[in-house]
Amino acid sequence: MTVFFELDAVTVERAGRRVLDGVSMRLEPGERLALVGSNGAGKTTLLRTLVGLEKPKGGRIVAFGAERRVEKDFHEVRARAGFLFQDPDDQLFSPTVIEDVAFGPLNLGLGREAAIERAETTLARLHLGHLARRVTHRLSGGEKRLVSLAGVLAMRPDVLLLDEPTNALDETHLARLTDILGGLDLAMVIVSHDRSFLEKLAGRAMLLDQGQLVEATLHRHAHVHDHLHIHAADGTHGHDHGHVDAANRPPSPPDETR
Ligand SMILES: Nc1ncnc2c1ncn2[C@@H]1O[C@H](COP(=O)(O)OP(=O)(O)O)[C@@H](O)[C@H]1O
Ligand SMILES: [Mg+2]
Asked: How many domains is the chain partitioned into structurally?
């Protein structure tokens, strides 16, 4: 099967600064890759580069079996790789939910009726049918995130690029999002600081640091320390913590991540 993405020594500059400095990675069909790194490390830049929104200064991008260089090469990539933006307000722009979700399919060339039908099916599949006639800008943050995801999924992508999808989600919407993503048979690149979310969804991890992308391990271990957690009073909701450490570095001290 064709590799979905293959980056070879890709270098990207933003505002004159080298944000990605010779980054190489592969994403195979069905793979779910966690992408971690501190704020400003270049995670969003890397996702944007995959779909041609940043133009590399050097290196090579192969996507869905073909090398992609110029803008028109990326049109097919954007149709097949669904990008969930960090801020849902950047994603939603139609007045109503149904129109927003139908926009992608319309753009792919479906007729109006078929696009609306596709949008309705997608919303129903995500149990969001009740939001179809709602005004987009009046949705809650969590609803906006799920509707944005519906808009991306309505295009029937082969791979999802998820940029901090759990940001600003309450526990209910986080659980809904986790369930939805967990039930999808799609390749994903998941940018997140939420270790437990990544643990549930990702099969492997890479860490972006100082422009370099390195393999990282995704694992779970116990902690002995105090910090505040809110639990259901009946104690049925246990919890544990996940950590991501670079595979080729010494393990981080236990409290580094909080
Ligand atoms: N629109 C932009 N114009 C210029 N530089 C940017 C822009 N967006 C981000 N950058 C810079 O690119 C670097 C990487 O940013 P970004 O990819 O957004 O990081 P992350 O998603 O890991 O937080 C940062 O130094 C940031 O300041
Ligand atoms: Mg970002």
From this structure: 1
